[in-house]
Amino acid sequence: MAQIPNLDNAPINLISIREQSQKELINILKNIRGKKCLVIDPKLGDSLSLIIQTSLLKEHGVELRHLSADHIQTDCTKVVYLVRSQPNLIRHICSNIHHDESKGLQREYHVYFVPRRTVVCEKVLEEEKLHNMVTIGEYPLYIVPMDEDVLSFELDLAYKECQVDGDTSSLWHIAKAIHKLEFSFGVIPNLRAKGKASVRVADILNRMQAEEPVNSSDMVMPEINTLILLDREVDMVTPLCSQLTYEGLLDEFLNIKNGSIELDASIMGLQQEGKKTKVPLNSTDKLFKEIRDLNFEVVVQILRQKATSMKQDYTEMTTTSQSVSELKDFVKKLNSLPEITRHINLAQHLTTFTSKPSFLGQLDMEHTIVESQSYDICFDYIEELIHKQEPLTTVLRLLILFSVTNSGLPKKHFDYLRRELLHSYGSEHITTLNNLEKAGLFKKQESRSNWLTIKRALQLVVEDTDTANPNDISYVFSGYAPLSIRLIQHAIRSGWRPVEEILKLLPGPHLETKRGAFSNSPSFDSLSGVSTGIAKVPDGRRALVLVVFVGGVTFAEISALRFLCSQEGMAYDLIIAATKIVDGQTLVETFMEKLG
Amino acid sequence: MANVSVAAEWQLLYNRYYRKPELYPMRWKHVDLARHKVAAAPFGGPVAVIRDDSKIVQLHAESALRKLRLFNSAGHPLADAVWRHPGGRLIGMSWNDDLTLVCVVQDGTIYRYDLHAQLVEPNISMGKECFEQNVADCAFWGNGVVCITEQNQLFCIPDFRNPKPVPLADPMIDEPPRCIAVIEPQYTMSGNVEVLLGVADDPVVLVVEEDGVQRLGEGLLRGPLQKMVVSRDGKWLASFTHDGRLLVTTSDLTGIIIERECESSLPPEQIAWCGMDAVLLYWDDMLLMMGPDGDPVHYLYDEPIILIPECDGVRILSNTSMEFLQRVPDSTVSIFTIGSTSPAALLYDALDHFDRRSAKADENLRLIKPSLPEAVEACVDASGHEFDVSRQRTLLRAASYGQAFCSNFQRDRIQEMCKILRVLNAVHSPEIDIPLSIQQYKLLSPSVLIGRLINAHRHLLALRMSEYLGMNQEVVIMHWACSKITASLSIPDATLLDILLDKLKLCKGISYAAVAAHADKNGRRKLAAMLVDHEPRSSKQVPLLLSIGEEDTALMKATESGDIDLVYLVLFHIWQKRQSLEFFGTIQARPLARDLFITYARCYKHEYLKDFFLSTGQLQDVAFLLWKESWEFVKNPMASKGSPLHGPRIKLIEKAQSLFAETKEHVFESKAAEEHAKLLRIQHELEVTTKQAIFVDSSISDTIRTCIVLGNHRAAMRVKTEFKVSEKRWYWLKVFALATIKDWVALEKFSKEKRPPIGYRPFVEACIEADEKAEAIKYIPKLADPRERAESYARIGLVKEAADAASQAKDGELLGRLKLTFAQNAAASSIFDTLRDRLSFPGAS
C-alpha cells in the first residue's frame, strides 16, 4: 500500500514535478558528505511523505528526526535541518544548537529553508548569534501533488494570515508556484480571478512573468489553457457545511491527513488490538477512485451490491461447474476483495458517526441556516449549543455559517453570544473572537445580507436532489450546490461576464484577462465563447483548466468539480490546486487562538 | 611548388618536425630584455617589463625612475606606472590566471596590478617571518605563489582569490636551494601545492608541503640538480644535473625517462618544456631543443630571449620579435612534407591543378577517392593550425573542394572551423595582438577569452564575438556599462543615463541594479537611482534602493512586488536606521508594512509593539497585549495558584480593562476584562475556602459546575448572580453537573423547584447521556413537543412509545428516520410501517 499516489493518469506531467522535488532533496543530502542527522519540522515531514519514501532518504546516510524544542539525540556530527521558513521553528533550532554548545558538542549545522530563506528567519538566527555557525540553503518546494488531479501548496495558515494578520506571504508563494508550473507547461493564456487575494495573486504572477519571463516561443501550445483563481473569502458557506460525499465524510470524522487516515486497527478488521493503522486514500485504490466523490448514501448501497454479488458469485462457484474463463473472471473479482473489505469497514465505521442524533441535528441546522428563512430557530439552536458547552469548534462552525449568511448579527445578539461564549469557554477565547471579527467571519451586522439574492440567482438550493443519479453538483451536500463551484461552473462555461452582477454582491474584485503571447490577441471580447475555439487541444485531449483555491478547498468541492468534469459536453479537464485541503473544523481551528 | 617552401622552414628533431614562425615583430622601442625583469602571460597574454634592480645597468637617456611597463604580445604599449614601492628589490613578477600582475618584493609585500597598470588594493603581505627574514626567491603557478626566505623558510599563498599566507614545513637546509619548482595543487595527491627544491651538495630533491618534507630521488640522482622544470600536467620533471646532463624523470622521481648529455656543464639560464615532447635549454645566445632521441636542434640568437611556455609549444620573445616554436601538427605534416603522397597532400595538390584548369585535378581525386573524407578532415585541421590567413584560406578551399566529392563528410566541420578561425584571426589582428593557437583557444575557452577582451576594454570585439558565438552578451554589456560609468566622470547624469540605456536595452534580462550599484560605488547616487528605476526584478531593485538610501521608494517597490520577504528586508533596514517615532510614522502610513511589523513584533518585541500602539493611539491593542501578558504569570512557576502573586495579574487585567474603556467601540472587551478580573478574585477565594486548587483559569460555567459537583450550591448561586448568568444557562449547567455526580434525587428535586424555563429537555438529555433510562423516563413525558418525545424514546430504545409519539406529531419524515434507526429490529420496523400506512404519509427514507 504505497502512500505516495500514483500519478500516471494525471492530465499534466505531475510525475516530473514530483521527481524534480525528489531530486532536489537528494542533491541536498548528497552534497553533505557522510552520515548526517536530518531534522524535519513535523508538518513539512507530512508533506514530504507524499514526495519521497523514507527508505530513499535512509539510502543517503540519513538518520531521521522530527524538530521540536527538545534537543536531538544522535551520534552524527552533521545535522541538517529542513524547515519551513517560520521563525518559531528557527527558535527550536537555536535551542537545539545552544544545548549542544552547553554540552560541548562540536557539530556541523546546515539549515535548509522551505521553500526559500527569508529575512525574518535569518534575523532570528542573527539575534541568537548563530548565523555564523550554520550553513544556510534552500529547498524550493512550492507545490505537492496530492493526487492525479489535486495539488497543494501546503500553506495551512494562509487564510488566517491574510485575513487576520495582513500577512500576504502565501499569495507570493502561490504565484511563484504557478509560475514554476508555467516554466514546465507554458504560460497559461487565460486567467480569471475572483476575490481580493486572487486578483493580487494574478497581479504578482504577471509581475513574475515580466521579471523572469517563461520563454513562450519554446512551447508551441501551452498545456494549461485557463487559470481560475478563487478566494475562500468569496464562499465561506461551503466549507462550513458538513460534507456528505464519501471522501468528505471520511475527512470530517477521521481527518484525512496528506492522503491517508489513521485509525484503530480493530476497525479495519486487523487483529492487532489497540494499535493504529494507516489507510491511504488516493486514486491508486481503484474502488476508492470510483466511490470517493459519491454521496455517502449511495456509497453504502454500492458497497452492499458489490458484497452481495461477490457472495453470489462465490456460491455459484462452489455449487455449479464453471468454465475456465468464468473462473478467471471470478479470480479477477477476488483481487478487488481487499479493497471492498477495506471500504466496507470504513463505511461501517462512518455510519456510527452519521447516525448520531447530534450529527443529524447539525445537518438539519446547517440546511436551515443556508436556507436562511428561520433566523430565530438558528439563533436558539446555537445559543443552546453554547449553554451545553458543546465543543467550541462545532459551535463556531455553525456560528460563522450563521453570521456569514446574515452578513453579521445584530449588535445585541452579537454581544450576547460573545458574552455567552466567554462565560462558557473562558475569557482566553477573546483572541479567537477578535480574529474572527477581523476576518469578517463573526461580526456585527452593518448591512443587509444579500445571501438570499445570491442563493436564488445561482440556484444554490436545489429541491429534489437525486443523490444516486445526480444531474447537478448539489448532490455533494444533499441539496446545497456549493457557491464556489457554481461560480467556477460559470467561469468555465462562459467567463465572468454573464454573472457580473452576482459577482458584485460577493466580496472582492474580479478579473478576466489574457496573458503571454495571447495578450495582444484582438479576440478579447470573444473570450466568453471559449467552448468553441481554443478548447480543443490538437491531439484530441480536452483542454485543461487549473482551478486554484486561495485559502483552502474541501473534498466535497473537489468532488463537485470532478462531477462537472465527468459531465457530457464538458470541454475541459480540471486540475485543482489549493493552499491546503481543509474542512470546516480545520478551517475554524486556524482562527482559534487562546490568550494564554 | 608551394608545398616545398612550407616544409623548408621545418627542423627535424628525432622523428618529428618543429617550426618556429614569427608571430609579430616587436613594436616596442628601446626595450632590452637583458636589462629588464620580464613577465609574459601564457595564452598570448600581455608582457610586463621593468628595469631589473638586481643588475647594474647603464642609464642612457632615460629617467632614473623605474617604470613598470605593460605591452601586448606584439610590443604595443598598454599602460605604464612608476614603480616607487618600498620594501626592497623586486624578487619575482608573474601574471596569474585572471591576468593580474603579481609582484613580490624583498620584504614579502605583494603588489598587484591590473591590465591597465592600476594597483589592485589591498596589497598582500606574506607575513611577519618574510618581513623579518627577507624573501630570497619565489615561484609562481596559475593562481598562487610560494616564497623562500633568506633563512630558507617557505611560505605560500595557495589561491590569490583568498590571499592568506600559509607557512610550509621547514626543509631544514642551511644553504639556499639551487633551484625551485612547484607542482600545482590540481596535480598533487593532497590537493595542496608541492614545492620541489634542488639542494646544494645533496643528490636529492626535497618535496615541501604544508605538513611535511620528503626526500625524493635518493639513489636515482648522482648529484645535486642545478635547474628544473615541471611539465604542464605535473607528471614529469625535466632537470639539469651538476654534471651537465638533461634528466627527465617522473615528478615523484621514481624513474628516469630520458637522460642525455648536453654540450655544457654550466647550468642553462632558462629551461622549458615545449609541449610534452621536447625540452628547451637556453644559454647565452644558444637555444637547444632536446627530444627523446636523435640529435638536438640548435638555434642561435644574438640577442637575449625569454621562453614563454604554452600548452602546445613555446613562444620565444626577443627584443625584436615574438616567435612560436611548435611541433608541426600531423595534418600539416601530411600535407606539406616534401614528397608527401598522403591523400591530404594529393587533395591539396588537386586544388592547385583545379585552379590552373588542369585535368590532373580529377586524376588526383580519383586516386584518393576512398580516403577523401580523411583528406578533407586533414585539410580542415591543418587550416586551424595556420596563423597565415591566406594559407588558412587555401587549406579550407582544398577541404571544401574535396568535400564536394564526398557524400559522408560531416558538413558542419568546415563551417565550425571557419567560425573558430574568424575568432582567432580577429584576436590575432593588430591592436588586439593575442597570438592564440587553436589548441590554446580551446583550452582557454571562448568565455574566458571574452573575459580577457573585456578586461582589456575591447568591448566591441567582445560583444561581436559573443554575438557571433551565440553566447550571452550580458557580461560584456554589463562590464561596458560599468567601465563607461567609471570613465565618464564629466558626463552629466541624464546624458550618461541615455548612453547607458541605449546599450543596456540590447540585452534582455540584464541587471540594471548591478549597473546602478556600480554607479553608486562611483559616487553617482543620482545616476544610480535613475538606473535602478529601470530594473524589472524587485528582488534586485529593492536591496539597491536601500543601499543608496532611497528607503521610501524601496518600501513602495517591495510592497508592490508582493514579495513579503522584501518588505521585511526594508522594514528591518528602516527599523535599524531610524528613531522609533519616525519609524512608527513611516510604517503607520503603509498598511502591509505595519501589519508585518505587528506580526513580527507580536512574537519577538512585545514591549516595542506596545510603544508602537501607544504612539498611534491604538489603546485597545495595548490592552490586548496586557491581557495576554497576564497569562505569563500563570506560566511563571513563581505565580503558583493561591499565592499572593495573583495580585499583579489581576492588576494587569484591570489596566487592560481601563484601556479598553477609553474607546467606546470596545465596551464589550472592557466588560469582558472586568468580568475576568472579578472571576479570578472569586476563584482565588474559592480555592482558599475549599482548599482545592481547581478553580483558577476555568470558565464561569465551569466554575459553577465545579461548585455544584463539590456540593457547594451557595457558591454556585453566588457566581450565577455575580455574573448575571441566565436561567437558561443555569439550568443546563446545574442539570449536567448533578448528572455528573449521579445525584438523581437532587436532580428530581431541582426539576420540581419550579417549571424549568427551557422545559425538561436538559433533564432528558442529561439522563440519556448518563445512560440512566429509568431516570430519563421520568422526564420524557413532560417534554412539550411530541417529536422530541418520539426521538427521546427512540434513543433509549423504547420503540412502541417512540412510534406513538411520532404518530401524535403527524410527522412522516420523522417516522421514516426512526424506522431507519431500528432497521435491524424487524418487529420495530413493522410497527412504523403500520403507523405510517395509517397516517398515509408519502414515503420518506
UniProtKB/TrEMBL annotation, chain A:
GO biological process terms, semicolon-separated: vesicle-mediated transport
Pfam families: Sec1
PANTHER family found in the cross-reference section: VESICLE PROTEIN SORTING-ASSOCIATED (PTHR11679)
Recorded family membership: Belongs to the STXBP/unc-18/SEC1 family.
UniProt protein name: Vacuolar protein-sorting-associated protein 33 homolog
Automatic annotation (TrEMBL), chain B:
One protein family per Pfam: Vps16_C
GO aspect biological process, one term: vacuole fusion, non-autophagic
Lipid bilayer topology: Peripheral membrane protein
Gene Ontology CC: one annotated term: HOPS complex
Primary localisation category: membrane
Annotated keywords: Membrane, Vacuole
Ranges for domain Vps16 C-terminal: 510-823
Compartments where found: Vacuole membrane
Record GO terms (molecular function): actin binding
All copies of domain Vps16 N-terminal, residue ranges: 8-413
Keyword Iron attached: no
Coiled-coil residue windows: none
Keyword NADP: no
Sequence similarity: Belongs to the VPS16 family.
Function: Required for vacuole biogenesis and vacuole enlargment in dividing and expanding cells. Involved in the docking or fusion of prevacuolar vesicles.
Name the UniProt record assigns to this protein: Protein VACUOLELESS1
Annotated source species: Arachis duranensis (Wild peanut)
Gene designation: LOC107468810
